[in-house]
Amino acid sequence: MYPEEYQNPQPTDESLQSPEESPTSTNEQTENLSVEPVLESTTHNSTVDTEQNNLTSVLPIANSQASNSKDEFVVQQQEEITTLGLEDQAEVQATQQRLAELQKQEQALKAEIADLQAAYKTLQAQMNQTQILMGNFVQETLSSLEQRKNALQISVEQLERRQERIRNEMRTTFAGASQELAIRVQGFKDYLTGSLQDLAAAAEQLQLVSAPKPEPEKVIIKEVRPAETQPGTPQFAQQQFQDTTKQIRRLIDQYRTKPDYYGPPWQLRRTFEPVHAERVSNWFFNQGGRGALRTMGSRLQNILVSSAIISILHKLYGDRVRTLVLANTPERLGEWRRGLQDCLGIGRPDFGPDRGVVLFESPEAVAQKAERLEKSNQLPLIIIDDSEELISLALLQFPLWLAFAPDPKMMRSYEDDF
Predict the structure, then answer these.
(1) Cα angle at 184 between 181 and 186, to 5 degrees?
(2) Where is the composition biased (Polar residues) (predicted)?
């Protein structure tokens, strides 16, 4: 960096002091070597003077070189300071620009924070409103569910009371207890059938020789065909229908003395007491198939009497008979449906507008249906439940109708059933 300084080194203090010390050393040598010749001392002195002159001529040159190198160093230092100043100014400008950018970012962040705070407040208000609405909705729903729960509990209690009452009726009546007896009798019947079959098989294995029997004479029986009558309105109370009367009495006695618990559909499958037979006979022979009977005290007993009448009519007229049951509530109609299924051995397919049994809640619909059945040569049988306080006059025009009148001595509150 400084070539002149390295090429021309500055003289040190020792080199400057050497000419001053040289005379002293020369004098000492002269004193010590007094025995040397005078020529040598003269020569030596001249040599010393020559060296001093050389040193004196070199010293100004070295001083000039040192001053020049010092000026160059100062200039170079100033240039470096100027360069550093320019660089610092550029850095300051860059720092200012960076600071301005950071301030802009700070303002943008503050604006964004303000927007977020406003959105947060809005969302919080909406959330509070939603919570209030949800609370009101849950409260209303809980109230509705509690009301429904209370209503269901009341309905369950009513159904339990009704079930208990029906069970008590079934225990106290022989018709209800006869089902268990019928099951036992059927089991004993199956046992006897199996035993007889085993006995017959054992008898066939025995080798028995029987004497030949004379053949009986053949008796020719001439079939007498009764005069065919046109199907019309049944008249059970008239004297000319003696055959029909005998058949009805025979069927009533059969139901009372020889009940068939596993008979075909539309045949009575329950125990028939004398009191039931008396009511059925009275309706057929005294009232001519059109009249009211006093209730038996329970709907199950009324259904049993009605089932016997329906079974007898099906024996006489077949599928022409269509039973129309009238009751004022669906629950009572449900009892009639279950009771008829149990007593007659029929199923759900036998209930319907074009089936053997039709259920109604209004007398007007019953009258319209009965008129259509008569026009199609069918035989409608109208059965009116004892819960009907009034009987429509439109129902009394048909040839077959049965109404159960409540007993004044045994008034039952049907409203307790529900």
Answers:
(1) 110
(2) 7-33, 40-52
| Number of other CB atoms surrounding residue 270 within 10 Å | 25
Which residue intervals of 206-273 are DSSP H helices? 242-257
pLDDT tens-digit map of 52-70: 555 455 455 555 665 667 7
Residue pLDDT, tens place only, 387-408: 888 888 888 889 899 999 876 6
- What does pTM read for this prediction? 0.45
Q: Indicate the DSSP class of residue 377.
A: T
Tell me, what amino acid is at 99? L
Distance CA 314, CA 268 (A): 11
- Order of strands, sheet of 379-384, starting from the edge strand that comes earlier in the sequence: 290-294, 401-405, 379-384, 321-326, 357-360
Which runs of E-coded beta strand occur in 117-225?
none
Q: How far apart are CA 377 and CA 231, in angstroms?
A: 9
